[in-house]
Specification:
It is built from one helix and no strands. By secondary structure, the chain is mainly α. The protein is rod-shaped, with a radius of gyration of 35 Å.
Amino acid sequence: MSDDTMRLSLSVADFAKMRKCKEGSKQQQETQQETQQETQQETQQETQQETQQETQEESEEARGAQGTVQEENQNHEAKVM
């Protein structure tokens, strides 16, 4: 083999390695993006569920308090009459 042929073979091999490396890097980026999106969606859903649950609990507490006030008013009216 002449020096030129060896150099050319080496260049092709290097090119193949670089291309393979570049493809691997691209796949890694895509995987990272997918993972990031999934994590973001899960976090968003959890936050939404927690917020809904808190709101529901607060509403129930408010209704309970309102019921107690109404009962106290009715009891007071009954005593007055």
